[in-house]
Each structure stands twice: as C-alpha cells, then as structure tokens.
Amino acid sequence: MGKYVSTIIKQINLDPGIRVIAKKIIVGKRITPEDALKLYNCSNLALTGILATHVKENHSGKNVYFNKNFHIEPTNICVNHCKFCSYRRRPEQKGAWECSIDEIVEMVKDRLLKDVSEVHIVGGVHPNRDIYFYTDMLKAIKKEAPQLHIKAFTAVEVDQMCKMANIDFHQGLNLLKESGLESMPGGGAEIFDEILRAEICPDKTSSTDWLKIHEEAHKTGIPTNATILYGLKESYEHRIDHMNRLRKLQDKTNGFNAFIPLKFRRDNNLYSHIKETTVIEDLKNYAVSRIFLDNIPHIKAYWPMIGKEVAQLSLSFGVDDLDGTIDDSTRIYSMAGSEEQNPKATTSELIEMIKDVNLQPVLRDTLYNIIEIY
Ligand code: V47
Ligand code: SF4
Questions:
Q1: Distance (Å, whole) CA 21 – CA 215
Q2: Does the C-beta of 228 come closer than 6 Å to ligand 1?
Q3: Is 122's C-beta closer than 6 angstroms to any atom of ligand 2?
Q4: Residue 336: pLDDT band by 50, 70, 90 thresholds?
Q5: What are the beta bridge partners of residue 152?
Q6: Is 33 exposed, middle or buried (CB count within 10 Å of its CB: 0-12, 13-18, 19+)?
Q7: Which ligand is nearest to the CA of 154?
Q8: CATH number of the structural domain 63-373
Q9: Which of 83, 88, 229, when mutated, tests ligand 1's pocket best, judged by the most ligand atoms within 8 Å of its CB?
Q10: What pLDDT, on the 0 to 100 scale, is given for residue 1?
C-alpha cells in the first residue's frame, strides 16, 4: 500500500502543505494538531480516505472486526441534564424505566441462547443506585454466564458510584473489577473542551475526571474505549484538542482499544434545531481520527448511530471495526433519530457488508482476539 499511495501522491495536483503531511503519513510519522487541522480543511475527500486506509492497513491489514453482542440499559432515569440527550427521563416521567437485577439476569439468560460473547451495559445515572447495587448486578450476571464478557459503565456512571460511596476511583474500579467488570465502553467523553462541555452537558463528569477514570481503569487492568460526540457546535480545533488529550493518555497507558466517533443525532432533544453533519463530513472525520490517533489500534463505526450504509462506506476511510450484532437491545440512538429504529444485524449481514468492499470479515471477542475468519 505504501508504494501505491506514494505513486498517487506524486501524480495528483496537491497543495504543498498537504503533500508534506501526506508524506509524513506514508512513512508512519505522527502528525501534529496543526497537520490535523489542515487535513480537516482539505477538500480532497478521496485523498483523506486513501491516507486513512494506508494507516488502517498498517494496524490491521485487510481485517474488519465485529463481535456478537447485545446491550442492557438498566435504566434511563438520570440525574444529569445533557442537552443532546433524547433518552433521559425523570423518575416520575412517562417512558422512564428501571430494571431490577432479576430482570437483568433474565435478559442475559434469553440472549445467551444466541451465542453472544459480550454484554454492553450502559444506562442513566440513577439517583438511588449505588456501587453495591452494580457490584451485585455484575456478580449475578457472572453467576449465570461466567463466559460472557462484561463491558460496562461509562466513566460518568463510575464517577457517580464512587461519589455516592465516598471512595476514590481506584477503590471503586477495583470493587467493580472484583465483581466481574472486564472492560469499559467509551461513552461520556462528549467533547473535552471545558467551555463547550459546560454548555452542552453542564452537570456531567469533568473532562479531567473522565480522563482520570480511564487512566485508573487502565492501571487496574481494565481496558476501555473512547468516544467523541461530534457535529454539535464544536469546531475542528475542539475535535483535535479532544483527540490530542486521548493520544497523550494512550502514550502513557496504552489501555484504549478503540475510538468511536459518535455523530450527533437531533431528534427529541433540546438541539433539534441544529442541522446534522453530512455523510461527507462523517467520512472525513473517521479518516482524520484514524490518522491522528496513531496509537489507538481500532476505529469503530457504530452502525446503530450512523446506519449500515454509511458504516460500510466508512470502511474505506480508516474504520476497521463495526461493533456487533446488537440484536435490537439499545434505545439511545433510535430515540435520537437514527435510521436504525430496531438495530440488529445477523452475522451473515455483517460478513456481507465487509466482503462487498473486498475486505476480510473477522469475528472477534471484546479484546480483539480472533474467534473466526470468514
Ligand atoms: O456518551 C447520547 C452519545 C454515548 C446522543 O465503547 C449521543 O464500544 C449522538 O458511548 N446523538 C453513549 N450521540 C454510547 C457510547 C458507545 C456506543 C457504542 C459503543 C461504545 C463502545 C460506546 O452516546 C454518550 C453520548 O456521547 N449520545 N445522545 C445523541 N443525541
Ligand atoms: Fe444522563 Fe447520559 Fe443522557 Fe447525559 S447522556 S442525560 S448522563 S443518560
């Protein structure tokens, strides 16, 4: 790929600044935040795709990963007031739910029949549920399904659990790990810029604490993911600052498995007047993320958020992971207006999506160990 990319770069008419950055990327040199800004402002979408594919292939060759998973959302009752959220309800409000531990174990039992390897558990920040509720929940799931990998709780939920119990992040994460937590998803990151964060999610865990919790998780042996919420009032500089903070932490801990750009969806929330990003912008964003975050092994296109067609397109813009089968078990994005109102994908559908663009479908577990190559 390197030779092929160099040849293309030599032959096309390019802005000299972009040519210098392209050469850096081809030889595997880290790009600076200033370079990333130039790439965001570069109108040659195809070029960013070629460069991101080059970087992607250095990480994972032709492989595109997916897993067999399902979500549990224990509650949508939440003490926070993120203005982009379409999911949160007050306790007495119509549409609020809270599942008991018994109900959660029943959900696990039902899905186990479908040969899944991971449960992804994320919910609202419930006012009365403390860390001991969640450690009991983890233990009950593990008792029923010891082989099922539990990826659970955003840093925002962990923050609240530790505050309620008056313990520090180290103690809280150790308790969760001892009870069965094996990895953490990347939610709650939103945008790290403090001014914008205060505007869009005023009472959420601070950026500093989000990063501290992930650092502590990595030190405790809990790998995590990271996200960005984009397309909502931020500038390119904000996106780059966000990724730069993640890149610096990853240099220190190497505990992030995947980065997941989450496109803002506008239905049923306080920002419904804001226009959503175009598909071109989404693809460019995947590409720049892949190139900038040279130390995070995987870039995930979360298809319940962007739809299967754009997820397939993203495979030519640096993405090497399509998350999983989901099995119609999450509501966060359908409530916010995603085209996937009942998100589920069969294994053969995911394989076909990947094979159709001449890439190699690979069934993985949560930690990217290969289960099957198709
Ligand atoms: O933090 C909420 C986002 C996140 C909206 O780690 C919205 O594998 C867009 O983090 N428009 C939670 N985004 C979900 C999440 C996630 C999803 C899939 C995989 C993984 C993983 C993590 O959802 C929140 C927030 O950024 N979100 N509302 C909205 N209207
Ligand atoms: Fe609560 Fe999460 Fe919604 Fe924010 S995004 S209001 S933390 S459920």
A1: 30
A2: no
A3: no
A4: confident
A5: 121
A6: middle
A7: 1
A8: 3.20.20.70
A9: 229
A10: 64
End-to-end CA distance of the chain: 23
- Indicate if ligand 1 lies below 6 Å from the C-beta of 227: yes
State pLDDT tens for residues 89-142. Answer: 999 999 999 999 999 999 999 888 788 999 999 999 999 999 999 999 999 999
- Numbered ranges of CATH 3.20.20.70 in the chain: 63-373
In which order are the strands placed within the sheet that holds 321-324? Answer: 321-324, 63-67, 360-364, 370-373
Instruction: Calculate how far, in angstroms, residue 203's C-alpha sits from the geometric centre of ligand 2.
Output: 10
pLDDT-based confidence at 6, cuts 50/70/90? confident
The backbone torsions φ and ψ at residue 228, rounded to the nearest 5 degrees and listed phi first, read: -140, 140
Task: Determine the distance from the C-alpha atom of residue 343 to the mean position of all C-alpha atoms in its chain, rounded to a whole number.
Answer: 16
Please report, as a single letter, which amino acid is at residue 54.
H
Atom of ligand 1 nearest to the CA of 154: 10
Query: What does the pLDDT look like over 250-285, one tens digit per residue?
Result: 999 999 999 999 999 999 999 999 999 999 999 999
8-22, 114-128, 289-303: segment of lowest average pLDDT: 8-22
| Cα 100 to averaged position of ligand 1 atoms, centre (Å) | 23
Choice from 79, 98, 154, 156 to test ligand 2 binding pocket (greatest atom count within 8 A of CB):
156
Query: How many C-beta atoms surround the C-beta of residue 139 within 10 A?
Result: 14
pLDDT digits (tens, 9 = 90+) for 127-174: 999 999 999 999 999 999 999 999 999 999 999 999 999 999 999 999
Tokens, residue 122:
């994320």
Q: Which ligand is nearest to the CA of 86?
A: 1
Question: Is 87 close to ligand 2, i.e. is its CB under 6 Å away?
Answer: yes
Give the whole-angstrom CA distance, residue 98 versus residue 72. 11
28: left (phi > 0), else alpha (psi -120 to 50), else beta?
left
Q: CB of 117 closer than 6 A to ligand 2?
A: no
CA of 89 to the centre of ligand 2 (A): 9
CA distance 75 to 133: 13
Residue 225 Cβ contacting ligand 1 at under 6 Å? yes
Query: Cα–Cα distance between 105 and 254 in angstroms, integer?
Result: 33
Residue-level pLDDT at 84: 97
